[in-house]
Amino acid sequence: MFNDNESEASRRMQEADDWELVAQAQAGDMEAFTALVRRYQAPVMHFCRRMVGSPQDAEEVAQECFVRLHRHLRRLQPRARFSTMLFGIARNLALNAVRDAARRPAPAPAEAMDRPVADPAFSPARRAQVREIESALERGLAMLSPEHREVLLLREFQGMDYETMAKVLRCRKGTVRSRLARAREQLREYLFVLGGDLL
Amino acid sequence: MKNDDRHVLDELSAYIDGEALEPARIARHLQGCAECARRHLQLLKLGVHLRSMPLPDVRPEFATRVMARIAEQEGAPAPFWRRRLVDAMAVAALVALCAGLFPLWLRQNREAAPAQLVATSIELRDPAAVVGAFVELFDEGVDEKLVEAALEAPEWGHMHYSSESIWELLAEVRPEDVSLGFSDADNNLFSMIDRLGPEEHDVLRELILQRFQAVDQNETKG
Ligand SMILES: [Zn+2]
User: Fold this and answer.
1) A185 is in which domain, residue-wise?
2) Which of A41, B69, B78, B135 is the most exposed place for a label (fewest CB within 10 A)?
3) How far is CA A54 from CA A9, A40, B137, in A?
4) Which positions in chain A touch B110 (Cβ < 8 Å)?
């Protein structure tokens, strides 16, 4: 989303557009706020789902994220990137949900995603392999600490650069760099233990 | 060239993100080192696999549900930390006026001035409220210099405490208590505290401590 020079122009346009919707929502236009929710519900939901594990908890967190956003609507100013701010909220809520889940007696095991994914154009053997890797990755991600998982999710799925992630996570760029390296290394080792040919 | 012989395993993660500190050296090393080149390829593949993982379904009624929750909460009371502050607000206002602490108080509007919220939340010994108030302060676009000036009460300058207290205070905060999602706002808070000189740190610590003692005495009386 943010790391590609070619998409920089379109990102800027979308950013201006986001804040325009915020301004309209601040003026009382609920349709504008709904449009913001629709624009960001998929990435936020995706992030929450992989952070939190349980689909129910993830949806709860994702919804609460937008509710919080609305609660602070009056005070929002286009000083930060809109998505940076939004993921900052999502991240705080997700971490709390992870902590709460850990306190519950029986933590919900990571569940596989609901939708089959392997490209139908692949051969059956290739599809099976892709599915094997995906399920291994799913378990591998769940095994990472929340701090390592979030940085990997923001990088790989939201395409954020290190500067943006540092803002979202409220840490230094060097911390982003080292956490990301550690997260990838743990995941790589995990896949290697499962079977050297997965990567 | 000697330098290029150093393995780059730890730097490959940043390298594939285009965020390596020495990309040219890493690129040169990869050409001559099978071990690092193999790892590089594995990490690239890992990224490809991760990015092709399935996306979770978003239920069609997601946005409608969000809007319903918002409508539900429209009439709900203010955030808890602001509610907690209301009772002590009058006292704090008086203290602030008497001590001449907060120039902001003088240009107050209908709502309590954010700087005053900070002072009051410190008085309430409520870390979540302290940070919440700070966040609000910056959300409102208040000049940081005014805050620093407000904390420069000369009568507190002679006491010395360690800077740990502020961080201990902040460490107790649960993010969801104060909706700390506004990265810019709280980055400003941390950088502001970073930028305060030793004397200003002392003043802030003293402010917090005096307020705590005042609260303690009140609690003992009560
Ligand atoms: Zn090497």
Assistant:
1) 118-199
2) B78
3) 36, 20, 36
4) none
